[in-house]
Amino acid sequence: MTYTPRHIERTPEMHPLTWRMRDDKQPVWIDEYRSKNGYVGAEKALKGMAQEEIVNLVKDAGLKGRGGAGFSTGLKWSLMPKDESMNIRYLLCNADEMEPGTYKDRMLMEQMPHLLVEGMLISAFALKSYRGYIFLRGEYIEAAVNLRRAIEEATAAGLLGKNILGTGFDFELIVHTGAGRYICGEETALINSLEGRRANPRSKPPFPASAGAWGKPTCVNNVETLCNVPAILEHGVDWYKGISAGKSEDAGTKLMGFSGRVKNPGVWELPFGTTAREILEEYAGGMRDGLTFKAWQPGGAGTDFLTADHLDLPMDFASIGKAGSRLGTALAMAVDNEIGMVPLVRNLEEFFARESCGWCTPCRDGLPWSVKILRALERGEGQPGDIETLEQLCRQLGPGKTFCAHAPGAVEPLQSAIKYFREEFEAGIAKQHYNNARAIGGIQPNNLLKQRW
């Protein structure tokens, strides 16, 4: 059956992030951006609003972080010190998009670089920050080129640099390309890397809001989060909340999508509350011919698998959380019937084990251990107790058991795959091991493991 991609008419009222995008996918440069109400929100903020008023506006709008955590952006901003003597402050944009299966920020930076520049300008004014850094994934070459050109254009137009729009506010914006570490998605590891240090997470407290980059107050926000700010300033709280009215408690829109062996993989700007089934079937076109749907991850490699029974859930933070997973980046991955869960999870755990910074023992040693067991199961050489050991590792690497959230996120796909597809893991245990265990008097699996490892 031939699939015809659904036509989407992007409008300023319903698609604040993407309505300016060109059909040919070329970047929107400053003249075109300004002709489409670009920098209107920035001018309104800088010329007519107090900094605290902007912070409260963003808080009242209900903007949540779009990097995966879903924390209130306005509340995060309000944690910055009020003391006027703290005259050096930094705004950092987390553009180190290394979550497997996620590519939403790349689209914004490559096609709408001025939207990010404007979002950072407004945010910096609200936070009284004189310098901003875009910490960019090093492999995003085109995004780096486009962002640097946008910064040059904005500087030439008097929208960056000294005395912006004649308001006396100064703001310098710099693109900093990273060296390729997934752990830099954790904000304090990002700060360490920016400073030229090893990308290890920092102990908290102190939190970045009080002592971040170079010991100064620092706020770190995701690309998509910052790109929401201009429209909120331009249109207000009621409009922003109304986009998803009746569909979700979360406000605004979200870049959502599906990858995997679907007919039309991609990313679309949709209101919170749109169901996963609607995205999969109407936008992504469903599974390719000859394949059937098996499972999905709602928002990146570090989220729990869900099944077809969960496809009618609204795509928002609360609904996906209640189902036992996380919305994450909201770019879902579809798993089809031809893909085995053991090799799939083994591939994910290899990535997470490789990207561990090695700072804490549970993560450094526990993730490679899970990979060894999964490889044995994949070869059909598993032993009794392997699955139980994997489950124990998931508990020992869970929230609160490690220095940062890397390991808890890494074991989410593992624990959920065992939960929903345990029989595939059991199939990897060699039959002779069961016979051997019975022959030697029911030896406990843990003792077998001690001999093995």
Automatic annotation (TrEMBL):
EC top class named in words = translocase
Q: Which UniProt keywords apply?
A: 4Fe-4S, Flavoprotein, FMN, Iron, Iron-sulfur, Metal-binding, NAD, Quinone, Translocase
Q: Which residues form the NADH-ubiquinone oxidoreductase 51kDa subunit iron-sulphur binding domain?
A: 342-387
Query: Pfam families, alphabetically?
Result: Complex1_51K, NADH_4Fe-4S
Give me the reactions it catalyses.
Answer: a quinone + NADH + 5 H(+)(in) = a quinol + NAD(+) + 4 H(+)(out)
EC number(s) of the enzyme? 7.1.1.-
| Stored SMART domains | NADH_4Fe-4S
Please give the InterPro entries that the UniProt record associates with this protein: NADH-UbQ_OxRdtase_51kDa_CS (IPR001949), NADH-UbQ_OxRdtase_suF (IPR011537), Nuo51_FMN-bd (IPR011538), Nuo51_FMN-bd_sf (IPR037225), Nuop51_4Fe4S-bd (IPR019575), Nuop51_4Fe4S-bd_sf (IPR037207)
Q: Which SUPFAM superfamilies match?
A: Nqo1 FMN-binding domain-like, Nqo1 middle domain-like, Nqo1C-terminal domain-like
This protein's cofactor list reads: [4Fe-4S] cluster; FMN
What superkingdom heads the lineage? Bacteria
Q: How does it assemble?
A: Composed of 13 different subunits. Subunits NuoCD, E, F, and G constitute the peripheral sector of the complex.
Give a short account of what the protein does. NDH-1 shuttles electrons from NADH, via FMN and iron-sulfur (Fe-S) centers, to quinones in the respiratory chain.
Name of the protein in its database record: NADH-quinone oxidoreductase subunit F
Which taxonomic lineage is given here?
Bacteria, Pseudomonadati, Pseudomonadota, Gammaproteobacteria, Enterobacterales
